[in-house]
Design a protein that fits this description.
With 1023 residues, the protein is mainly alpha-helical. The protein has 44 helices and 10 strands. Helix 35 links the parallel strand 7 and strand 8. The protein is elongated, with a radius of gyration of 39 Å.
Length: 1023
């Protein structure tokens, strides 16, 4: 805002207005600033004369918030005049550059300290050149409460309210001194954090002196205050909870119980002295929740009690907290003995059997809590992605793992520990430098945020003015908001990247044969680190890493870039060792191709997905190893979408046409085998596509079943075409009959799993005028050739053709004519065969024959009026017999997802009974799909919606479990894994459960509810 234009001639006074000058200096409300200056010049006593104004304007314009600084300065000058400090302050502002810089910097960055100066104008002296940074802070704060600093146990002059208020005034006086040096760059972020921790320690000592005045029996005990967290690590914020633990002991001759009661009163009074609100506000919250048993435990314990707790009961996070323990107040000898007692326990923590699991669980909890914060998480300096916690958590974990054997890693301060880790080779030098730079930046921003109003916050503001102040405080002047946001986001991304990599880069520097001065890790240290990541065979992992990264080739160089990140992703998968082994095998197969490593390097999604797939699924890994080029489809979700049936069919049949046989019998056989080999390779590729989509959560259980059915149908149809061509080539004549393949069971229901057989029936219909026996021989030859072609040894999962659901089962002919099927179903069909036809789908072969077969079986499986009551009773008896006879010997029925109570069989028999009874009258029930039939039953009011929901949930979970078992193990099973802990855990992880126990509980709950519905709906039992 500028002064109004005048109409005076342009050659009169061309000097710029004060408002314009202020605007150019950075004032956002230049008009208001001009008014404040003019009012000050006109006020009695001339608060700002011309020379002083000239000396101040440029400095004020260089502050974080010039408007804030000017307003606070004018209020300070007025207050100083009232207290007789005005002349001295003006002289210092005019003559002392350092004083002027520090004072204006404080006033432009901290409204709270500006208010403090107005209340206590004499405190400006701590910002003077000859004063800044000097003096014993402990002595100063003790003296402020009337205690003698030289006493062994200083006692405040009184226990009244005056002492806590005086403590706050003295504390903020020292805070003012530190902020002044901080804001002009005279103290870096590490120095500031250390001095803040020392200031907090001095305040706790003064608070303890106030407590002694309040607790007359204090001589009966010794009390030490142990700083934890950032206070203990000498890396405190401007405003933060101060974490402490109290340890006490009785003095000689004093009863321990009485001494502990006195110590508890002392501890509580100390906390109040610092935390309570007074006319001068409060300092910060004193938090003793890190003590043994947390808030549920006693506030004060003896040293022996502390030691006993940590030796027997402490959790991993408590050892992590103890990394930063430091005596900060009270009895120094007792505090030192406390540290000596707990240190050996802390550094032995990594030897615990469940140490790695506990650390991983802590990390998952932190990330889960962060996810619940939503959009706010992105603005969190502390907990957000790439925030301070990412740095601190990683550094502390490395310290716990390696500090037990390397005492140089035991610093409680993050930046010092990071430097030590770099010097020891545990973190690469470049990574450590980048992480240090980012951490310093984030801590600096955190300090500036809190300094503004002296409030505890870790949230980057979204207000434009506040962002502008932050940017200017950091020296960003061209575009403070944009530059700050870009810089912050860049540092956050780097922290997040390095957080994921931190464990792994030093390992690579050791095993990738780098220069001697950088390769400092021993093989044993590397194995320990791999074990901490969750690798069961660190020595084997090291061999894989050495093989991948050895040499000076471009391939080795790219692998050295990729592996630090990928090792962490392997560690996040259920089987890190298998993941790394699979990666080595795929890399050996594709490493010389120009696109493979470039794809992994340039598209990190491919590498991350590859790590998860290889570490989670033996089935998918085997598929990929047989066709390594399929890794390219990991690049995007679109590549992993199941391909349409028509596209697959066209590709498969084109392959068969390309291998059309000649007339020679041997050549015809070879051509058919070659054609089916190509088709099976297509199937292998598509199985990998579906498996990866399943593992990554990109395809639900219905989509997986549909896709696997399409793949099987295309494979069978192509094999049928190749077999037909081969038989015709051998006989030298066209096939004298039409053929079709009827999909049955889960194949017909379009619900195939990874390990499912293809249940089929073969039907043929001789051509007019053809000899029926010749037609039958030809059809049988084609069916047998089809089965032979699909059972040839190959490097892909087998597709077993199972024709046992045909009439008369294994005793009946492999192929029947349509008329034979009609005769059999008319005279001999059993109720179970009628039930089996519910899922029959003649989906392959001659279209006309398929339609005629469908017309034949529809009246049988959907009889008018539904099946007879006697047939219903037979079906129920058969189901009951199956439940007792078909379970594998020794199997726990509750863990059998197919035949167990509430399993797949239960759900499907309920659906099929409803179809047999009502499908003739309800067209929507005429489906081979289980879930579609459930929906139709609800729509026709044949099934309660709640019951259908229970049955659908049980069916989906059981189907997903079967699929996950196959994906994880590489072999099919209908039982939840019980014999292998890692498989159990892996199946649970693949299904999205945190633990195997969670999966088991989910399964039990679903099956229990489903069985209750089956008892009522299928068997007709009352609730």
């Amino acid at each position: 805002m500028t002064e109004p234009r005048t109409t005076e001639p342009r050659n009169r006074d061309r000097r710029p207005s004060l408002a314009g000058r202020l605007a150019r200096l950075g004032f956002t409300d230049a008009g208001r600033a001009q008014r404040l200056v003019r009012e000050a010049e006109a006020a009695d006593g001339v608060r700002l004369d011309g020379p002083l104004l000239e000396a101040l304007l440029g400095v004020l314009g260089g502050t974080a918030d010039p408007d804030l600084a000017l307003g606070a300065l004018l209020r300070l000058l007025a207050a100083a005049d009232e207290h007789g400090e005005g002349a001295g302050l003006r002289a210092a502002l005019a003559d002392e550059d350092g004083t002027r810089d520090r004072l204006t910097a404080v006033l432009g960055a901290s409204a709270a300290l500006g208010d403090h100066l107005v209340r206590h104008p004499g405190h400006w002296h701590v910002l003077r050149d000859h004063h800044a940074g000097f003096g014993d802070v402990r002595a100063e704060l003790l003296a402020a409460v009337g205690a003698r600093p030289g006493d062994a146990e200083p006692v405040a002059a009184s226990a009244g309210s005056a002492a806590p208020a005086a403590l706050r005034v003295a504390y903020r006086r020292r805070l003012l001194d530190l902020a002044g040096r901080d804001l002009v760059g005279a103290a870096d972020v590490a120095r500031v954090a250390a001095e803040l921790a020392d200031l907090a320690a001095a305040a706790l000592e003064a608070g303890l002196a106030i407590a002694r005045a309040e607790v007359p029996e204090h001589p009966s005990c010794r009390l030490a205050v142990i700083g934890m967290g950032k206070c203990g690590g000498r890396e405190l914020n401007y405003v933060s909870d101060v974490d402490v633990v109290f340890v006490a002991e009785a003095r000689d001759g004093a009863p321990e119980d009485a001494a502990l009661r006195a110590a508890t009163r002392l501890a509580a009074a100390t906390m109040r002295a610092c935390s309570a609100s007074t006319e001068e506000g409060s300092l910060w919250e004193v938090d003793a929740a890190l003590r043994p048993e947390g808030k549920a435990g006693p506030l004060v314990r003896t040293l022996a009690s502390h030691r006993a707790y940590y030796e027997r009961w402490a959790k991993t996070w408590e050892f992590q907290a103890l990394l930063k323990a430091r005596p900060v107040a009270g009895d120094a000898d007792l505090g030192a003995r406390y540290i000596d007692a707990v240190a050996p326990i802390v550094w032995a923590a990594a030897e615990g059997e469940d140490f790695v699991e506990d650390v991983q669980a802590m990390r998952r909890r932190v990330e889960a809590d962060l996810d619940r914060r939503g959009a706010e998480a992105e603005r969190q300096l502390k907990l957000g992605p790439g925030g301070l916690r990412d740095v601190e958590f990683a550094v502390q974990l490395l310290q716990l793992v390696h500090g037990r054997t390397d005492e140089t890693l035991r610093s409680p301060t993050t930046l010092e520990a990071l430097a030590d880790l770099s010097r020891g080779g545990y973190v690469g030098r470049e990574d450590a430098a980048a992480l240090t730079s980012a951490y310093r930046f984030l801590r600096r921003v955190e300090h500036l945020l809190q300094l503004h109003r002296l409030r505890r916050t870790h949230l980057v503001p979204d207000d434009e003015d506040e962002l502008r102040r932050l940017g200017r405080a950091l020296g960003l002047r061209t575009d403070p908001v944009g530059e700050f946001t870009a810089l912050w986001r860049r540092h956050a991304r780097e922290v997040r990247r390095l957080h994921e990599k931190l464990f792994y880069a030093p390992l690579l520097r050791a095993v990738a044969r780098l220069p001697e001065e950088e390769a400092r890790l021993t093989p044993e240290a590397a194995r320990t680190r791999l074990e901490a990541l969750g690798y069961n065979d660190p020595a084997g992992a090291l061999r894989h890493i050495e093989a991948l990264t050895a040499g000076v080739s471009r391939r080795a160089a790219i692998q050295r870039t990729l592996l630090p990140v990928m090792l962490g992703w392997f560690a996040d998968a259920p089987d890190p060792d298998a993941g790394l082994l699979g990666f080595r095998q795929v890399s050996d197969a594709l490493g010389t191709t120009p696109w493979y490593l470039r794809l992994l390097r340039d598209d990190i999604t491919v590498a991350e997905r590859m790590a998860w797939v290889l570490g989670a699924s033996r089935y998918a890994t085997d598929l990929l190893l047989r066709a390594p080029e399929a890794v390219a489809m990991l690049a995007g979700d679109a590549e992993l979408a199941p391909r349409p049936h028509d596209a697959l069919r066209a590709e498969a049949l084109a392959a068969v046409r390309r291998h059309a046989p000649s007339t020679a019998a041997d050549a015809a056989t070879a051509a058919a085998e070659d054609a089916v080999t190509v088709v099976r390779a297509l199937r292998r590729r598509e199985l990998f596509r579906v498996a990866v989509a399943d593992l990554l959560g990109l395809a639900d259980v219905t989509a997986v079943g549909e896709a696997l059915t399409d793949i099987a149908a295309v494979t069978v149809e192509a094999a049928l075409r190749a077999a037909t061509d081969a038989v015709e080539a051998r006989t030298g004549a066209p096939l004298p009959t039409r053929m079709a393949v009827v999909a049955m069971g889960r194949f017909g229901g379009r619900e195939l799993g990874y390990g499912s057989d293809a249940d089929v029936m073969f039907v043929h219909d001789p051509l007019p005028g053809a000899d029926e026996r010749a037609a039958d021989r030809a059809a049988r030859a084609v069916a047998e050739e089809l089965r032979r072609l699909l059972s040839l040894p190959a490097s892909d999962p087998p597709l077993a053709i199972d024709p046992d659901l045909r009439p008369e089962g294994r005793r009946g002919p492999l192929v029947r004519t349509l008329a034979s099927y009609a005769a059999y179903y008319a005279r001999w069909s059993e109720p179970w065969e009628t039930q089996a036809l519910l899922r029959a789908d003649p989906m392959i072969g001659d279209p006309g024959l398929r339609d005629r077969f469908r017309a034949l079986i529809d009246p049988i499986r959907r009889p008018p009026g539904g099946i007879a009551d006697d047939a219903v009773r037979q079906i129920r008896r058969l189901k009951a017999r199956m439940e007792s006879e078909r379970l594998p010997r020794g199997a726990d029925p509750r863990l059998h997802v197919k035949l167990g109570p509430g399993g797949l069989s239960d759900v499907e028999w309920v659906v099929q009974l409803i179809q047999l009874q009502h499908a003739h009258d309800v067209p929507e029930l005429r489906t081979t799909r289980t879930l579609a039939a459930l929906d139709a039953a609800v729509g026709a009011d044949l099934l309660d919606p709640a019951d259908a929901e229970v049955l659908a949930a049980a069916w989906k979970l059981a189907t997903r479990i079967r699929g996950a078992v196959m994906l994880v193990r590489g072999r099919a099973s209908d039982l939840l894994p019980t014999d292998n802990r890692s498989d159990r855990s892996a199946v649970a992880r693949v299904l999205g459960h945190a633990t195997a126990g969670d999966l088991l509980e989910d399964h039990r709950r679903c099956t229990r509810r489903a069985r209750a519905v089956v008892e009522r709906v299928f068997y007709g039992y009352a609730d």
